[in-house]
Specification:
The chain has 560 residues and is mainly alpha-helical. The protein folds into three domains: 220 residues, Serine Threonine Protein Phosphatase 5, Tetratricopeptide repeat; 117 residues, no CATH class; 100 residues, SusD-like, tetratrico peptide repeats domain (Four Helix Bundle (Hemerythrin (Met), subunit A), Up-down Bundle). 45% of the residues lie in helices and 4% in strands. The protein contains 19 helices and eight strands. The strands form four sheets. A two-stranded antiparallel ribbon has the order 1-3. Strand 5 and strand 6 form a beta hairpin. Helix 6 packs antiparallel against helix 7 and helix 15 packs parallel to helix 17. The longest helix has 28 residues. 53% of the residues are buried. InterPro entries: SusD-like_2, TPR-like_helical_dom_sf. Keywords: Lipoprotein. It holds the Pfam family SusD-like_2. This is SusD/RagB family nutrient-binding outer membrane lipoprotein.
């Protein structure tokens, strides 16, 4: 949908204008509900805040969740499940989502209701339901029934996630009904997701409902509701209908993919690629990790779209700038001899570090800013890896969208529902279609960026190998294949991966205490939820005490 590319600069200008409006809150009778901001300005502001706070930059929820799900690694307390309520990766997304996006979205709901602007109202209700569902999935209890009622109530209580979810499903029905109403209002390019296309918004709503029913299927009988949705069959049904935020190329104001801006500035990448994730895709097992990759015995052709090696091929003549933990080898700075580190990586430029190695890795003090493998074209807009190497220096494709809810995810959800007998359908066929859709998404981004596409032969060789393993597995093994392939497809969108793992136990995750590495030691248990932001707890006397994120009390209500 090319209109997103053309209008994104204007949208960022709108966001800047809104920020200026909020500098003059004293002119409004109700500071939390400025009356002089139009729906046309509020809508793109909310959407940009949503996408940014859910994405893979340091201020996005996909940042920590992608490290928890062992796709990214960082030299920080994320390395060992140690995120706290004071961390920016917890506080910033909450601030943007709750204090800004949802507050502005509530203004849209109020103004659209008063003006009978039904398309705006339906879109705002759909975004509210979707955003709150993610907050419940990550934090558990959150302010909902008393939220955004300033100045009458500045200290909202935290509602239980179990009580919020049914209200979100009802809200989605209301959103759909409003989008179907006749209206004198028309939404255009200010809608950065769908350009005002209400039919696509209804497909999104149905897809969100299916997702939420799937997430609660272990604790509620949702068969009738799911069957009704499956029968209606009006979901996101192609890559062109994906719910995502597309970006642009402008630097002033900067409308590039925020993850690209963060990770592709020369020598400043925050994240390494998890060796575990790489080895699953490369069909390697060099350090005794869960062996899903070995079960299918084929290399994933998406690797050069996912990972970009700044060194084309590590060798004695082309060595990382410092001693490295995970690479083929490096020049020892003391002896000037080439030290072979991981022989199985010969012929590659992979350079990374291990999870669970913070402060104990013998190479801890060495940076690899100009050598490390970085997230590539598919997740963030970096370059396609053509094997030639080269420093990451804003030479990629910053327009790459932040994926939120995609066609391939809908198909994976359906495959899980069919396999679990929550709905009637062919799980294997739908699983195949989900994998094909995930490859099609990579090719869509590659083609737009002018990169080579994955051939049908390469795609089918991989998918057929996975399906052969799927056919040989029992139901638990089949679920593992579905969830592992969804995990691989979702690189760059960590939020749902984290939820999926807590629901199903798949994919299997790397454990630093069971590998053959002496410098990877897991000291903490996997967290069942995010901690609440410390700043929010400090100012709200009705907020609960901080949770112990590894305790049973922290488990989301949909965990069995």
């Amino acid at each position: 949908m090319s209109f997103r590319f053309h209008k994104i600069i204007a949208a960022f200008a709108c966001l800047t204008l809104l920020s200026c409006e909020k500098d003059f809150l004293d002119i409004n009778d109700d500071p939390s509900n400025p009356l002089d901001v139009s729906l046309e300005l509020l809508l793109p502001s909310v959407q940009l805040d949503m996408a940014g706070s859910l994405g893979t930059s340091t201020a996005g929820l996909s940042q920590i969740t992608s490290t928890y799900m062992h796709q990214l690694v960082q030299r920080s307390n994320q390395n060992d499940y140690g995120v706290q309520g004071t961390d920016s990766g917890v506080q910033s997304p909450w601030l943007v989502l709750y204090t800004r996006a949802l507050a502005d979205n509530e203004n849209i709901i109020k103004k659209a209701t008063e003006q009978e602007a039904w398309p705006y109202l339906g879109m705002a209700q759909a975004m509210k339901a979707y955003t709150y569902s993610i907050m419940v999935d990550l934090w558990g209890d959150v302010p909902y029934s008393e939220a955004h009622q300033a100045p009458q109530n500045l200290l909202p209580k935290y509602d239980q996630g179990e009580a919020i979810y049914p209200q979100l499903l009802t809200l989605l029905d209301e959103a759909k009904a409003n989008l179907e109403k006749e209206s004198i209002f028309e939404v255009g390019d200010e809608d950065l997701f769908y350009g005002g296309d209400t039919d696509l918004w209804i497909k999104f709503i149905n897809s969100v409902k299916l997702k939420l029913y799937n997430q609660i299927r272990l604790v509620d009988d949702v068969t009738a509701e799911v069957d009704a949705l499956i029968t209606e069959d009006n979901f996101i049904s192609s890559e062109a209908e994906d719910f995502e935020m597309e970006y642009g190329t402008s630097v002033g104001p900067d409308n590039r993919n925020p993850g690209y801006v963060q990770e592709w500035a020369p020598g400043t990448a925050n994240y390494y690629i998890s060796p575990y994730f790489y080895e699953i895709m490369a069909n390697l097992n060099t350090f005794n990790h869960p062996d899903y990759g070995g079960k299918i015995d084929v290399t994933d052709p998406r690797i050069p779209y996912y990972f970009y090696n700044q060194i084309g091929e590590v060798s004695q003549s082309s060595s990382p700038e410092n001693p490295c933990s995970y690479c083929y080898g490096y020049i020892d700075p003391n002896t000037e001899e080439f030290v072979i580190k991981v022989p199985a990586l010969q012929g590659t430029g992979m350079v990374s570090v291990f999870a669970f190695s913070l402060n104990i890795d013998p190479n801890e003090g060495y940076g690899q800013g100009s050598s490390q493998t970085v997230a590539g074209l598919y997740p963030l807009g970096g370059k396609y890896d053509d094997g030639e190497g080269g420093t990451s220096n804003f030479n990629g494709y910053p327009q790459t969208p932040q994926r939120l809810l995609n066609y391939y995810a809908v198909k994976f959800i359906q495959a899980e529902l069919f396999l679990s007998n929550t709905a009637t359908g062919d799980a294997r066929l739908t699983f195949r279609d989900a994998m094909r859709a995930s490859f099609a998404k990579v090719n869509e981004i590659a083609e737009t960026a002018g990169a080579p596409v994955i051939t049908t032969t390469a795609r089918d060789n991989y998918i057929n190998a996975v399906l052969a393993a799927y056919d040989a597995a029992d139901d638990a093994g089949k679920l593992e294949h579905i969830m592992t392939q969804k995990w691989i497809a979702s690189f760059g969108w960590g939020v749902d991966m984290y939820t999926d793992f807590r629901r199903t136990g798949f994919p299997l995750l790397f454990d630093g205490n069971t590998d053959n590495l002496s410098f990877t030691i897991r000291t903490k248990e996997f967290p069942f939820a995010y901690p609440w932001p410390t700043n929010n707890l400090a100012v709200n006397s009705n907020a609960p005490a901080q949770k112990v994120v590894t305790s049973n009390e922290a488990k989301p209500f949909w965990m069995k």
